[in-house]
Design goal:
- The chain is mainly β and about 375 residues long.
- It has 2 domains: about 260 residues, no CATH class; about 80 residues, no CATH class.
- The chain is built from 2 helices and 27 strands.
- Strands 2, 3, 4, 7, 12, 19, 24, 25 and 27 form a 9-stranded mixed sheet that branches. A 5-stranded antiparallel sheet has the order 18-9-8-20-21, with no helix packed on it.
- Strand 8 and strand 9 form a beta hairpin.
- The longest helix has 7 residues.
- It is flat and about 85 Å long.
């Protein structure tokens, strides 16, 4: 691992990893933290956030949404746009529903656009052609001839909603037991934490069922048994679809002949953790305009520009030759859940891969295209072999 001299104000990390053919390579990661000035301009924050070494959830793992994916990934073939956000009604007056989302523009041309509608709590209400007795309700499947329909209730009025997968379409439905007495579930592998998933045989048709509160403008929730795409602005855990298949096939052949290397069909795309609609390819460059819709308590829309930064690494070989390579902006994390914009933070991560055993030294450089306040340069050097 070459010695790294950090000429930037940002934390960095470097380690080795390997690809699907078990070829080793090095990684340098840089993570920058910005705050938002009253003017809307991004400023380098006095306190820089540290690297995150493991996936972090809002609460317990597997029962709450993913908040912050690990920074320790080897490569992202596209830019992740990830949010920790709360949809808010401008002005604070409760409403039954409103629109929210994000648009990212490059010189006026959209690079990304995702628009959602959020609602207050609502339910799928069962409607029967006649009232069932308590005894009939216990054996409702025998009386489905009297079932009329599911009716989506009017949403309650609210003024804010966390944009987490617990409020999006998905969930799981108990489906009895197998011959060994083990409980069976029909689980939406794209969002096991969600709600609104209904089954004609196994969902209880005698009690209201929670309906999703986050929906796509292009695919509003309207049909009870329809399979909807889960919607949010937050990241997707590695064990959920559509990420999981990109990790590769881990069968007996892998156990016997390939372990501990990655599976041959492993893809770097597995490390893109943003919602599929928030993955931008080719990578963002910085300087793009970000428009936040329905996420601010005092405005329907708030916009700012990503900093026009350029980070590069000067790799120095044994004979003193210098190879300059630009780093790739592969993660834009918008932590905009706080009520006050003063407490919002924007995290940008750049990454670069390099071959092992060639370079003796490397210089991490920071080219600012316009004046940004920045603290003194810091140096964080940690070596990990993976």
């Amino acid at each position: 691992m070459p010695e790294l001299i950090n000429n930037t104000p940002f934390p960095n990390f470097r380690y080795y990893s390997s690809d699907s053919e078990n070829r080793e390579f090095g990684i340098v990661i840089v993570k920058a933290t910005y705050e938002i000035a009253p003017s809307g301009r991004l400023l380098v924050a006095e306190e820089q956030a540290p690297m995150v070494f493991t996936d972090l959830c809002y609460g317990a793992v597997n029962v709450t949404s993913l908040w912050h994916p690990s920074d320790m990934v080897p490569n992202k073939p596209a830019t992740d746009v990830i949010f920790n956000a709360v949809a808010r009604v401008a002005g604070g007056a409760p409403k039954q529903s409103w629109e929210c989302g994000v648009v990212i523009e490059d010189d006026g041309a959209p690079r990304l656009e995702k628009r959602l509608r959020v609602t207050g709590p609502r339910q799928w209400q069962p409607r029967w052609k006649r009232n069932l007795s308590e005894a009939e309700k216990e054996k409702w499947r025998k009386h489905l001839g009297y079932f009329d329909r599911w009716q989506l209730s009017e949403p309650e009025a609210i003024s804010e909603l966390p944009l987490r997968y617990e409020y999006a379409y998905g969930g799981e439905i108990p489906k009895g037991q197998n011959e060994n007495g083990d409980r069976l579930f029909d689980t939406d592998t794209r969002n096991p934490l969600g709600c609104g998933k209904l089954d004609k045989e196994w969902s209880n048709h005698t009690a209201p069922q929670p309906a999703p509160q986050i929906e796509s403008l292009a695919e509003p929730i309207s049909e009870p048994y329809k399979d909807y795409t889960p919607q949010s602005l937050g990241p997707i855990p590695p064990a959920w679809d559509p990420r999981l298949p990109l990790a590769g096939t881990y069968d007996q052949n892998w156990t016997d002949n390939i372990w501990p290397a990655w599976a041959p069909d492993y893809s770097f795309a597995y490390h893109n953790s943003a919602h599929p609609d928030l993955i931008v390819k080719p990578h963002l460059k910085g300087h793009e305009r970000v428009r936040l819709l329905g996420l601010c308590v005092n405005a329907d829309e708030f916009s700012f520009f990503l900093p026009d930064e350029s980070l590069s690494v000067d790799f120095v070989t044994e004979d003193g030759e210098i190879e300059t390579r630009d780093m790739i902006l592969d993660t834009v994390f918008l932590d905009v859940a706080a009520v006050s914009r003063r407490n919002w933070r924007i995290f940008l991560s750049w990454r670069i891969n390099f071959p092992p055993g060639i370079y003796e030294q490397a210089f991490l450089n920071h080219d600012r295209k316009f004046g940004l306040r920045r603290p003194e340069a810091s140096k964080l050097e940690i070596e990990v072999t993976n």
